[in-house]
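Hello again,

I reread your note about wanting to compare the complex against the isolated chains. To keep things tidy I'm splitting this into two emails, and this first one only covers the full assembly. Below are the input lines as submitted, including protein chains and any nucleic acid or small-molecule components. They are followed by the predicted structure of everything together. The single-chain runs will come separately.
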Amino acid sequence: MRSQILDVLTRKLEARSALSLSDKSTLLGLPITIRRYEARKDIILEGRHNNQCCIVIDGLLCRYKVIKDGGRQILSLHMPGDIPDLQSIHIDVMDHTVGTISAATVGFIPHSAIKQALQQSYELSRAFWLEVLIETAILRGWTASIGKRSAPARIAHFLCEYITRMRSIGLSDGVTCVMPLTQTEIGDALGLSTVHINKKLRELRRAKLVEIRAGQLRVLNWKELSDRADFDPNYLHLPLLKK
Amino acid sequence: MARFYFDTDDGTAADADDEGVDFPDRESAKNAAHAILAVMIGEKLPISDNIGLRVVVRDEYGRPFYRAGLNLEGAEIPQA
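Full-complex prediction:
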């Protein structure tokens, strides 16, 4: 049971890094505590000290900050295999909050156990470092999008990225996948109002590019959607999608 | 919370809202109507110096109760 849970992490790291059998057995042997969260619950609060890392087993998590008089900004989305608070190993106090979007199963691994594993193996250490680097690459993608893309292109880009990431971890066939975010949450991620998201999603649906219905995202015309978004997945550094 | 519908017209395309968005009250829905006009005008810039935007807000029964407009009128000043 425990090894099945950590398998989601092992597979993710292995997709980008050459891990030895001993590295894999170290990963699968990490002590982990499993907790189930309902949708829209905080897991780790800004300002708190942390002595463990959380790993997404299933469901969707996000990092966010609340801006005074400005509402909430969602900073990133985290899917199964992600460790949204990996930086807490070295940074003592959380500078943002981690919470659930959908109901989620989350595993907690003590920092001490991760530090010990990373000390034992250069490859493991490299694999974890790479995770952080790619996460910051995605963050750069979001910054560029929020700063410079028009609202319709920004929304199209967000949807392209979401389904591409879901596909890379085997949770989508590239056409459909679960989409638990509400229009308000998509707005919080993109710096747009709910009414605006509502209008632009309707435009995309009427143009037969994409539709979101009953918690499902369905791409109807990838070519046109990714063209409008000017989507180039290079910043996701996905080994499985390399041409 | 109640459902409100925002029908917009930017002079070239009209969008009839068939889904709506939830707001706590009419006042918040009116504020959202002003905000969407501000966003729409941003989307039209800088391609036009003559823009007329309209929004009509309907309540949960589909009855219109508020309308707002935003105009941008630009013109060159004739040189003597």
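For quick reference: The CA atoms of residues 36 and 67 of chain B lie 12 Å apart.

B.
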